[in-house]
């Protein structure tokens, strides 16, 4: 259950709220209906307390609680703490920290999530924040109504519930991993071109350090592991998929990050017209194995492996053994990682919620 925040066991209790089943891509019309009914019952809406506004129970089947949910990938949420009525609930739960944005499905023991949301009046504006590695959007106009998550729990297949706790204070320190190369700079005027030439006279400083096997490596910097441009072959994930392997070191350990193949994960229904498409490392397949945009049952994602090297070997010996290193030379920590589960920062990398502070980095190809 590593994708969920901390929880405590609580006893089942009946809810007076009406209950609906979450469906991917469908706006929760029940929210607007409840708000309109509440609004018509209030003589003075301005003095009505939000604590008296209605609540709605929404049950989310476990297969939808994943970062491969197309509403999550498309960033379909607007606001912070209070969200627009068309904000996707799974994306909101990840933004508020009830569960983590990972491509791995929940454990089989989990039947569904049960969220209680409170219907609120429309807001004058909805602000954007980056929280728990999920970015919400801003919106400057009032919508039909708003909602806030009151509580959320896991419903187990064997019965009973596990109450989840939100994480509303964690703002991610993960940095955008794009470092464009100089040739992609666009010149629009002579003055701009002149300034760019002057800037290129300053050579970027690269610090060399000796690694754990006493060989020169580059000091870790986010610019070293960042995508080198907007073209797909320049993405770091594409470099690993082509066969390069990324080795990084802490002060005492060496780690290996490599491409481990493709895996199929259960997908949500196909996109409607005008909606955001899959991310750069995903493509869809039909059940018969042929690529199709109809009747999609699964999504093929590029999977990556994060391992600890049992012993820091010299580069020449590593090449003779094989790149990436064979299983007897590494301890696999995380396998079948989605690229979105790997988050880089100025001081290191986050892998499935755990931070590794890095000091050295080196790309190595098998040839």
Would you write up a description of this structure?
There is one protein chain. The chain has 367 residues and is of the alpha+beta class. The chain has 2 domains: 19-164, no CATH class; 205-266 and 298-364, no CATH class. Helices cover 14% and strands 32% of the residues. It has 7 helices and 21 strands. The chain has helices at residues 29-41, 70-73, 89-95, 190-200, 222-225, 236-241, 315-321, and strands spanning 7-10, 19-21, 55-61, 79-80, 82-84, 110-120, 130-131, 134-135, 146-156, 161-164, 208-210, 216-219, 245-249, 254-266, 282-286, 296-309, 330-338, 342-344, 348-351, 354-357, 360-364. The strands form 4 sheets. Strands 1, 2, 3, 4, 5, 6, 9 and 10 form an 8-stranded mixed beta sheet that branches. A hairpin with a 2-residue loop joins strand 7 (130-131) and strand 8. The radius of gyration is 24 Å and the shape is elongated. The protein starts with 6 loop residues before the first strand and ends with a strand. InterPro entries: LCCL_sf, Rxt3.
Key terms for this structure?
21 strands, LCCL_sf, 2 domains, alpha+beta, 7 helices, 367 residues, Rxt3, eight-stranded antiparallel β-sheet
Shape: elongated
Helical segment tally?
Answer: 7
How many beta-strand runs? 21
Low-pLDDT residue intervals, each spanning 5 or more residues: 1-15, 182-187, 200-204, 270-280, 283-295
In total, the number of domains comes to 2
Strand content: 25-35%
- The amount of helix comes to 10-25%
- Gap from first CA to last CA: 40 Å
Rg over alpha carbons: 24 Å
Order of helices and strands: EEHEHEEHEEEEEHEEHHEEEEHEEEEE
Which class do the helix and strand fractions yield? alpha+beta
Q: Which sheet architecture does the biggest sheet show?
A: 8 strands, mixed
- Output mean pLDDT: 78
Pfam family, one: Rxt3
InterPro entries: LCCL_sf, Rxt3
